[in-house]
Amino acid sequence: MLPAGIFTDTPTLIGDWLIVWPLILPLLGAALLLMLRSQSGLQAPFAALILVVMLVTEGMLAARVLADGPVAMTMSRWLPPFGISFAADMLSASFAFVAGIVALFVLAFAQTDVEPRETRNGFYPLLLVLMAGVNGAFLTGDIFNLYVWLEVVLIAAFGLISIGGRKLQLDGAVKYGFISLLGTTLFLVAVALLYGLTGTLNMADLIRLAPNIDARAGSGIAALFLLALGIKAAAFPVNTWLPASYHTPGASVSALFGALLTKVGVYAILRILAGIIPLSMVRDVGYVGWPGFGFDFSLSLLLGFVAGATLILAPLGAIAETNIRRAVGFVLIGGIGASLAGLGMYSFGGIQGAAMYALHSMLTLTALYFTAGVIERQTGTTDTRKMGGLYHYSSPLSILFLVLALGIAGMPPFLGFWAKFALVQAGASSREYWLVTVILINAFLTVIAMGRLWSHIFWRNGREGDPSEAPNANLRPLNARDRVWGFWPAAVLTAGIVLLGFFPQPLATAGFVAAQTIVDSSSYVSAVAPAGVR
Predict the structure, then answer these.
(1) 296 - beta bridge partners?
(2) Distance (Å, rounded) from C-alpha 359 to C-alpha 531?
(3) Boundaries of every domain in the chain
(4) What's the rounded mean pLDDT across residues 261-277?
(5) Per the CB 3.0–4.6 Å rule, which of 21, 47, 413, 521 could disulfide with 124?
(6) Which tens digits make up the pLDDT trace of 355-386?
(7) Nearest by Cα to 310 from 209, 446, 118
(8) Closest CA to 307 of 434, 202, 193, 425
(9) CB atoms < 10 A from the CB of 378, how many?
(10) How far is residue 333's CA from residue 446's CA, in Å, rounded to a whole number?
(11) Phi, psi of 286 (to 5 degrees)
């Protein structure tokens, strides 16, 4: 006989199915597309249909969470902590919604660089499987299933990065696959240790039980989570794999990876280190060194150091880089540091700023990778030293790149400004002045890095080493396909980013409500595990 309270006959409301549709739809779509592999002309339209319906369900889910608070659904009516739960609060719902927007734009841009043999080899099913993994990671309410969805993401991403079969892609796939496998293995070890201390894997149950575990053991497990997820998020010092791999596939896959894969790591760090592990364990101070020679140490201090180093070193890498998409990869890493800095403040405003910056980065990095891909098409090279002259040749593209450059640096009035403003304001309020200083230095260095790229690609008349008056003879116009599916998706997405910069209330609201649920998790716990359970 089952213990009382474990099994329930309460029917699942129709509205609660919104939580699982973002997972079910892409998985079903991927299976159907695999069965239709011989129908290459149906692959892109059918995948687009699936992504549109998925995005609609994600929008409805985000609207419901904003109106009613967190919602949850547990498989097979086995209530937590025994059942497998899916849960959505504003943090997870907003991340999933923005991920859906990114995937739809990536699908459009992919029409410029996905070759017919890549379509036959399963590009579109892999894209849908990746989206299922990303949505699963955002919406799961079980920490072991977070590991499972991270594995789904790894498998799909490995397929996408290597699907072209070129030597450079295979090199990038090996680097990405090895380091990602290491990260997921460390994550699984941390999950096992946490389960050994608490006896549960349900996130809502962990929130209730984590304060009762040994503080030093909890701090050690939190540090292991930080290492594992820091690899996923490409934080210092485990970030060198990203610029070595993200530039190897087509620009559409680079955009997908840059926008989503690292943000899964950021999301998991926010969810676990801010939402599950008690603050007392994060700020637990220990002495490192010998009597009379050492210093006080805590996980929050370590997180702040990781964030600061990531913020400073990443744009310096972009300044030194000559490959355009590798440079964008370093800029992406700098944004990860900004989100980690917000978490390192361990305040309401810091978590709000971290969420806002991650959401902004998902959109802006997608458009920036798109623009880099169009630039490569027009110049016929990935080396910025061999570019030049695009300002006169394609002034709309130069304006597009400049807008995104200022936006990713956090200049007003673009969307990135409001995210960095929230972080600076939170840092000043919590007296974390050194983090505020590092964030501002990052903005300054990012302006230099992006300004250098713009001047070399657009302002300079021709290739490096040629006479200054000699034009770049290698420039070529975009064909109709590249204009429709390459330039215009980048332009439309950039226009949306600029519009949100003038009307940032949706971003601020999403960050504010997300931070509320993380700081006060009672509504999340009540939604996942009703009173009386356990």
Answers:
(1) 287
(2) 33
(3) 14-528
(4) 92
(5) 47
(6) 999 999 999 999 999 999 999 999 988 888 88
(7) 446
(8) 434
(9) 23
(10) 11
(11) -125, 160
